[in-house]
Specification:
Strand content: under 5%
Helix content: over 70%
Largest sheet: none
Structural class: mainly alpha
Order of helices and strands: HH
Distance between the termini: 89 Å
Oligomer: single chain
Length: about 60
């Protein structure tokens, strides 16, 4: 009975993993894409603030 119970619990666990795996992978890919876009936007903004001309220095 104990071996049968262990097999039953493990099969239930693997079936649950198979059901949950796809949405988890999609969420993870979306999350990575969001982080990548945020980093890209942050880098562009930082470069723009670095290279922007300070009007006070430019006029003097």
């Amino acid at each position: 009975m104990t071996n049968l119970g262990i097999i039953l619990i493990s099969t239930m666990f693997f079936i649950a993993l198979l059901i949950v795996k796809r949405p988890l992978i999609q969420w993870y890919k979306g999350f990575r894409r969001w982080i990548w876009h945020r980093r890209l936007i942050w880098k562009i903004e930082r470069n723009l603030t670095k290279t922007s001309i300070d009007p006070d220095k430019f006029l003097s």
